[in-house]
Amino acid sequence: MNATASAIPSAGNLTKVWFLNGPNANLYGLDANKTYGSESFPMLRQRCENKAAELGIALNFVQSNHEGQLIDWIQEARGDAQGVIINAAGLTYTSIPLLDALLSFPGRIIEVHMSNIWKREPFRHHSYISKAADGVIAGLGAEGYELAIEAMARLIRRPAQA
């Protein structure tokens, strides 16, 4: 298995959120064109873990280049987390199995992208993931990742609508 993960801390009463990153996200900061910014993946993870801790969220921030691993994590999150934030990367535009897994998740879902996918190639303009998502954040780089964590905290803590 080629996956990068950080374990969920001892959560107590903390809200749990899984933040899933898809193929090639581990290469952030190494792109000469800087499409995804200049922060490395470990820097981005630290930034997200700091934001989550500030908000009282136990964050499981993981990355895999394998579709099946992402699906396994979504299924694992079903019994463990109140929310999933996902940057499915290139799988956003191709993966019906990821969509199906997300549709089976009972909690909140936020789709996030470092770049503005609607300003890029036409094939990136359709996201299968969006059908399962409560919201989408795109084009804000690393700040978008932090905003996704903040939005997730609000969504989870919002009283249920009658």
Automatic annotation (TrEMBL):
Catalytic residues (UniProt): 36 (proton acceptor), 113 (proton donor)
EC numbers: 4.2.1.10
Species, as recorded: Bordetella genomosp. 8
Gene: aroQ
Binding residue positions for substrate: 87, 100, 114-115, 124
Function according to Swiss-Prot or TrEMBL: Catalyzes a trans-dehydration via an enolate intermediate.
GO terms, molecular function: 3-dehydroquinate dehydratase activity
This protein's UniProt keywords: Amino-acid biosynthesis, Aromatic amino acid biosynthesis, Lyase
Catalytic activity of the protein: 3-dehydroquinate = 3-dehydroshikimate + H2O
Pfam families: DHquinase_II
Transmembrane parts of this sequence: none
One GO-annotated biological process of the protein: amino acid biosynthetic process
InterPro entries assigned to the protein according to its UniProt record, in alphabetical order: DHquinase_II, DHquinase_II_sf
Similarity comment: Belongs to the type-II 3-dehydroquinase family.
Protein name: 3-dehydroquinate dehydratase
